[in-house]
Amino acid sequence: MSDNSETVEIHGHIIDSLSLPKVLDELIEAGADYEILEFNVGKSHQDPSYARIKIWTETEDELERALRRIHPFGAAPVDIGEVTLEEVDIDGAFPASFYSTTNFPTEIRIGGRWIPVEHPEMDCGIAVEETRAFTIPVADVKRGQMLVTGRDGIRVIPSERPRGKSALEFEFMGSSVSSEKPKELQVQRVASQMKAVKKEGQKILWVLGPAVIHTGSGPDLSALAANGWVDVVFAGNGFAAHDIESALFKTSLGVYLQEGTSAEGGHEHHIRAINLVRRSGSIEKAVADGVVTEGVMYQLVKHDIPFILAGSVRDDGPLPDTITDILESQKAMRELSGNVGLTIIVATMLHGIATGNILPASVPIICVDINPSTVTKLLDRGSHQSAGLVTDVGLFIAQLAGELGASKS
What we know:
There is one protein chain. This protein has helices spanning 19-29, 60-70, 183-199, 211-214, 218-226, 237-249, 269-280, 283-288, 296-302, 326-336, 349-358, 372-380, 393-403; strands spanning 4-12, 33-40, 49-57, 76-77, 84-87, 106-110, 113-118, 125-129, 132-136, 146-149, 154-156, 177-178, 203-208, 232-235, 251-252, 255-256, 307-309, 340-346, 365-369, 386-390. The longest helix has 17 residues, at 183-199. The chain starts with a strand and ends in a 6-residue tail after the last helix. The protein has 409 residues and is α/β, with parallel strands linked by helices.
């Protein structure tokens, strides 16, 4: 056997949460040999399990890669040591050996004590100030800050799924995507999850793409907002522009939503809608001026529901509320993501991925799209708490509004 070896341990509900199978799969994919030295299975539903695994590779670099692959699933060296800190020498850049975070709860060991890392978020660094540790995006780091480097003294706590819990409770915590599941039952479960989140006093975050308006489901979403089922909205300029277009001209992309026929000069409607809002100065002012009197954005303003419109290079106008600086958009989204208990992403890949990147793994994500690749993209990007529903977004929102008793006005 090679001298390049390491013994790791993993504990918790590692069977039901599939943490142990995932670790073993990653080791196989990495080309590593392994031996399970100890394996204790919890006797009751609440008891954790434990495994100790020895890993061998041909080279030290291969061992490092294997350990890096299993780290996000909670596998850590038995002799975990103390965390290593390095001073940041350049604004907006990490030291070369920085530790790249996952979105799972994480702790670091300093002076023999374990300190929780605040605001778990993937693809960040970990900054340490006295007795605090917190994630920090690379663009925000400042010279002189102390940053965690290497892998020593770090442990990741993956999402747990204790035995004996109902399948419903964890329906949206698993990484499942299917176009063949019964849609009505899935929508009922989404509604049940939303009710449970609201009962706990947490927020429901909606991430919305223009197809929500194109499919004619704007009135149903407006009803959901008016009835308290929307607490925060992330979207782009396109969603708001077409929503306001539909409010002003009854069209989306120049097509009448009721008749499905093209309006004469309809291709100009979205830019005319944007222009009218720009003349008022903001969406809120356009509502106050009586320019916009219905639609999703109208309901958000009327019910004081916060929203972020994150722009892109393809935006027309844009609307005055659209944040055109990407870093400012990310900061604004982070500020509004607190106390979110459930996220529903509908018909938007880019804004969906952006949201998944900033959310901790403890926040369930439901991703709804007619395109299966859009739904699976979140999982591919590391949002393991995401579950997908492949269906027409218009039907989904209409059925959900019906389940929640949110009737269109």
